[in-house]
Amino acid sequence: MRRLLRLLIVLALVGLAAFWYVTRPDPLPAGALAGIVGDTQRGELVFWAGGCASCHAAADAKGEDQLKLGGGQKITSPFGTFLTPNISPDPQHGIGRWSLADFGNAMLRGLRPDGAHLYPAFPYTSYNKMTLQDVADLKAYLDTLPAVATPSQPHQLRFPFTIRRLVGGWNFLFESRDWAVTGDLTPQESRGRYLAEAVAHCGQCHTPRNALGALESDRWFAGAPNPNGKGTIPNITPAHLKWSQADLVAYFTTGLTPEYDSAGGHMAYVVENLSKLPESDRGAIAAYLKKVPPQP
């Protein structure tokens, strides 16, 4: 009985050590962003491509109010409700005191400055494919925006999802830094893939998820239930979306479909963001969508 007890203790300690190792934070290498200088003009384009205002400004914000990133929007999920944080340059309630390395670790590794895991409701699992220069450009632009003195609100999650360390295990199982669409792509299609899969994180809404909230990459862009419980987010693979590239570019520019319908819901904000990009970028996303494998 004593031997069995000792064996169980050893197994428990080994299991605990394995759990602690697997769930550990994995920050960027020291100095990864050293010497990289952000450009605010390029950062503004990254800002709109990434849809930052759509989540971090007030839900009904228009015009200049879209640049006040005090957070507070609610994101419903099977695990509870996430509340978007303040990412304005406010030094107390926002990210005004964050270094570029802090920001890079949040965007590319899903980590807070204190090393704790961010929840993947923040789409670092898409942003992790962004270039270091784009991350620096975005930080430079965010630093120019108005400071908002609104405290970030805590998430409303059920136990055990309140334990952030578990996110490290989720990352171990599901986080990928690989592209969903592979193969030979033209420079235009590659640019579109970068924008759609990384910066604009389109797959976060248009791809189904498994029971633990991870994207089912083998069903990329096949459509998914709307997290708010109202309707579905459509399949945008060539099996369902028959629009031409010109139709797609027009939709990303004006929000009007070939059937003279208009974008609604959250997609209206996406179109508003994409319309601020160069037409070449909208064309690149359209070209990429034509290369996505068809999904029923």
TrEMBL record:
<keyword id="KW-0479">Metal-binding</keyword>
<dbReference type="InterPro" id="IPR009056">
    <property type="entry name" value="Cyt_c-like_dom"/>
</dbReference>
<feature type="domain" description="Cytochrome c">
    <location>
        <begin position="38"/>
        <end position="146"/>
    </location>
</feature>
<feature type="domain" description="Cytochrome c">
    <location>
        <begin position="187"/>
        <end position="293"/>
    </location>
</feature>
<protein>
    <submittedName>
        <fullName>C-type cytochrome</fullName>
    </submittedName>
</protein>
<dbReference type="InterPro" id="IPR051459">
    <property type="entry name" value="Cytochrome_c-type_DH"/>
</dbReference>
<keyword id="KW-0349">Heme</keyword>
<dbReference type="InterPro" id="IPR036909">
    <property type="entry name" value="Cyt_c-like_dom_sf"/>
</dbReference>
<keyword id="KW-0408">Iron</keyword>
<dbReference type="Pfam" id="PF00034">
    <property type="entry name" value="Cytochrom_C"/>
</dbReference>
